[in-house]
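Researcher: Quick test of sequence recovery. Tokens follow.
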């Protein structure tokens, strides 16, 4: 099935409730703070689309814990995809918003689901066009396996083993009017 073919998601299970999601991103935030010496050297970048609300929540929780306002940006990888030619003649392109200079700062790259690793590879390639960070760390709500590239997350909300026929959908109230992590099959 190519990217132009619409697919149906048939839900099989709820993997995370809103409370479980909140606990996961708060735990991830504590792990980020423990690993990094200073929150003031961090920049948090959410991968569009659903990495952005997770990035904003992590930044808000850092402010609650540390009293430090973290710069948050968003990155749209559309033109950096290795399958751009398969997604149609007029792909939907979102905005990339880099909050200042990322050179010599630690970038926390945030996404909803880590699957093949190709989205993360594209995001890293795009980030490098904006500067040379001191380091890039990856935070994801769900790691579902099936990696095609040697990429791993530094901070994971939940590991969910899946089959290749299954799909994981992360929903955020900011986009979808509800928080949930769903497991289903794509038809």
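Model:
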């Amino acid at each position: 099935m190519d990217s132009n073919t619409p697919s149906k998601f048939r839900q099989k299970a709820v993997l995370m409730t809103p409370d479980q999601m909140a606990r996961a991103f708060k735990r991830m935030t504590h792990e980020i703070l423990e690993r990094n010496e200073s929150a003031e050297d961090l920049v948090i970048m959410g991968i569009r689309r659903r990495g952005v609300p997770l990035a904003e929540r992590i930044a808000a929780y850092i402010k609650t814990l540390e009293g430090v306002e973290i710069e948050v940006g968003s990155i749209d990888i559309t033109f950096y995809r290795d399958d751009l030619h398969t997604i149609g003649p007029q792909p939907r392109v979102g905005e990339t918003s880099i909050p200042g200079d990322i050179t010599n700062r630690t970038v926390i790259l945030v996404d909803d689901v880590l699957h093949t690793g190709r989205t993360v590879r594209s995001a890293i390639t795009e980030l490098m066009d904006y500067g040379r960070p001191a380091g890039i760390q990856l935070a994801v709500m769900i790691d579902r396996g099936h990696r095609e590239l040697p990429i791993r997350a530094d901070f994971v909300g939940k590991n969910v083993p899946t089959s290749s026929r299954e799909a994981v959908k992360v929903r955020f109230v900011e986009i979808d009017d509800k928080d949930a992590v769903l497991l289903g099959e794509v038809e």
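The chain has one domain: 25-162.
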